[in-house]
Specification:
132 residues; alpha+beta; two-stranded antiparallel sheet; 4 helices; 6% strand; globular
C-alpha cells in the first residue's frame, strides 16, 4: 500500500533501534531529523515550565543490573510533567516503590512503555549510565 511504502521510505532515513518499530525517536530528534510538537496552538493547555532535576539515577536494589538512568529532560520535552505527575508517580522522592513486575503489568513506566513508547524488553535502555 501507499502508506506502508511511505513509512518504509521514512524509516530508512531515520536512526535504527533494536526493538519496537525499529526507530530511535530520541536520536532522530537530537540529530534534527524531526521536530517535536508538544502542543497545538489554540487547542493545548499551556504547560508549566520544567523545574525538576534534569536527570536522576534511580537505584532499584537489583545487584545484577546497573542503576536506572532516568532523564526528566528527555521525558518532559515529549510529555510535559502532568502526564506522569502526580497520577503515575507522586511528587515526593523515594516514597513510592515499584517493581519491574508493576511496569510489565502496565503501571508506572509501563503506562507508556510497551504501549506508545519503546517496549520494556530492552533492559539497557533504562538500566544504563546514560540515555540511549
Amino acid at each position: 500500500s501507499k502508506l506502508r511504502s511511505a513509512f518504509y521510505e521514512f524509516r530508512n532515513r531515520m536512526p535504527q533501534d533494536r526493538f519496537g518499530n525499529g526507530l530511535n525517536w530520541i536520536k532522530a530528534e537530537e540529530d534534527g531529523l524531526l521536530s517535536i510538537k508538544d502542543s497545538l496552538e489554540g487547542l493545548s493547555n499551556v504547560k508549566a515550565e520544567f523545574t525538576g532535576p534534569p536527570n536522576m539515577n534511580l537505584s532499584d536494589g537489583e545487584t545484577t543490573m546497573p542503576d536506572i538512568f532516568f532523564s526528566h529532560s528527555k521525558h518532559a520535552v515529549w510529555n510535559g510533567c502532568a502526564l506522569c505527575h502526580p497520577d503515575l508517580f507522586g511528587v515526593k522522592r523515594n516514597v513510592q516503590p515499584y517493581s519491574m513486575q508493576d511496569i510489565f503489568e502496565g503501571e508506572y513506566c509501563g503506562a507508556c512503555h510497551g504501549k506508545v513508547a519503546f517496549p520494556n524488553i530492552d533492559c539497557r535502555k533504562c538500566h544504563a549510565k546514560e540515555v540511549f
